[in-house]
Amino acid sequence: MKYRKKPVAIEAITFDEFVQYGLEHSENIVNGMPWSFEYKGHPVTHENDRCYIIPTLEGDHYFTPEDMLITGVKGEIYPCKIDIFHATYEPVEDKAMSFGQAIEAMKKGKKVARAGWNGKNQHIELASAISYKSPEGEVVNAQHDAIGNKAVAFCGTSGVQMGWLASQADMLAEDWMVVG
Predict the structure, then answer these.
(1) CB 54 within 8 A of CB 65
(2) C-alpha–C-alpha distance, residues 55 and 44, integer Å
(3) What is the pLDDT of residues 126-163, one digit of tens each?
(4) Nearest to 140 by CA among 152, 151, 129, 128
């Protein structure tokens, strides 16, 4: 069986950015290099000027200028060779919004989604009619004049609009993004 990596945004930095972080957050500087400091709550130590020891879930790993340092979805850190990193990851624009900002974007005609939504093309949008499929498979547009003919609609992987109500988690989330 084959598997595809879920589309999640991760944070990563280069060796030089890591050294700069260490210089700014450590008082233990030897010959212009940070010797030991914490990064994302993890203690790191200087092996030599081209290598730091990074504690990972699999044990200690070396982080060198030929690597990227990734912060995983649970806050874990681990080095990854630059060529593998670029083959696996692509840059994303970090323009996360609150739910209120997402609503304002929808009022301007934008489609929005939570960062963690995994289905292809899943989003919500402001709709003037909510669509559904009849038992015969026909797409039906349900007009709703009583509420100003506007409602938030969820569009799933089929592209059909459905009525949608935000959960408390959705309303309090800060990971809304404009999509499409």
Answers:
(1) no
(2) 7
(3) 886 666 667 787 766 665 554 455 788 888 877 777 77
(4) 129
Give this prediction's pTM.
Answer: 0.55
Output the six-digit token pair for 111: 């489609």
* DSSP state string for 66-134: TEEEEE-TTS-EEEEEHHHHHHH--------B-HHHHHHHHHTT-EEEETT--STT-EEEEESEEEEE-
Burial 169-180 (b: 16+ CB within 10 A, else e): eeeebebbbbbe
Q: 126 to each of 4, 44, 67, 148, 154, how far by Cα in Å?
A: 31, 48, 43, 12, 9
Q: What is the pLDDT of residues 63-77, one digit of tens each?
A: 999 999 999 888 999
